[in-house]
Amino acid sequence: MSEIHQEPPSSPPNGKAAQGSLAAGIGLAWLVMVAGEILVAITGSFLIGAFGGMLLPPLAILVWGIILINQGKSRTGKGMLLGLLSIAAVLLLLVAACFGILSGLDAGDFR
User: Is 64 a residue whose pLDDT tops 60?
Assistant: First the structure.
C-alpha cells in the first residue's frame, strides 16, 4: 500500500480570523469600561479635577481600539470603538430617562 501524505490546509494570514471579531471588541469595551470605572471608584483616583479619573476607561478604550486597528486586528479595534459608541448611547438614554422622571415631578412632591 502506498501512503498518502496530505498537508493540513493552512489559513491565510490576512483572513477574517486574523482580523479579530466585532463582538469581541464590543465585549472588551464594555469590560474595560465597567472594570475600569469600578477600579477608579475603589482607588479614588481622581487625577484631573473632581471627575477626571472617570475619563480614564473611555480614553483607554479609544487608545486600545486605535492600537488594535494599527496592528492588523481591525475588526476587534472597530468593535471596541463601536462598543464605546454603544456605551455613550446607553448613557444618553439613562440621562434622558432620569430627566423625564424628574421633570414630571412638582416641587410639592419633595415634601
Answer: yes
